[in-house]
Amino acid sequence: MSRRNAIKADPRAGAQAPDEGLSVGYLMSRARASLLSALDARLEQFGLNAMQFAVLKHLAHGDADTAADLCRVMYYDGGSMTRLLDRLEERGLLRRERCREDRRVVYLRVAPNGRALLPRLMSAASGVIETHLAGFSPDEAEMLRAYLKRMIENGQPAGDNQHSDGGKS
User: Fold this and answer.
1) For residue 99, what are the domain limits?
2) Is 168 part of any domain?
3) How many domains does the chain contain in total?
4) Per the domain annotation, does 10 fall within a domain?
5) Is 78 contained in some domain?
6) What are phi and psi of 124, to 5 degrees?
7) 3 falls within a domain
8) What are the backbone dihedrals phi and psi of residue 96, each rounded to the nearest 5 degrees, phi first?
9) Interatomic CA distance for residues 133 and 67, integer angstroms
10) What per-residue confidence (pLDDT) applies to 158?
11) How far is CA 37 from the centre of its chain?
12) CB–CB of 131/38 below 8 Å?
């Protein structure tokens, strides 16, 4: 019997319930992958993917205004970000502007076409979230949000996770 068949034949392999023993990190990773996959499918009609949408959303909301900012906010590498920005610029959804004081700095702006499309993209993203939260009560959804926010705050470097509202958020 080959090693592959021996592994398949191991009775312990299928003995556990499917979710038994899965770590919180693994489940969070699976949930993120499911959200991104569903968002990619929903945004396909616009010719965009989830990462391109995230760039437009972060720029529109003022979370970032340079490629370096986006890389930090989205945990994305510079080379991939440049290619992503190039595609969005080619489609007329964003534009680059050189800083007048320091020509090394390039600001990113959502172009009028991007601004016009953004409400439809936001609606598509909201639909994906609503689908994933189906069956959650409003209180459960709020608790999940609070737990995730606390995990993010706990993961910040010491001194960076101070609550501006006394920790009641």
Assistant:
1) 32-154
2) no
3) 1
4) no
5) yes
6) -60, -45
7) no
8) -105, 140
9) 32
10) 77
11) 11
12) yes
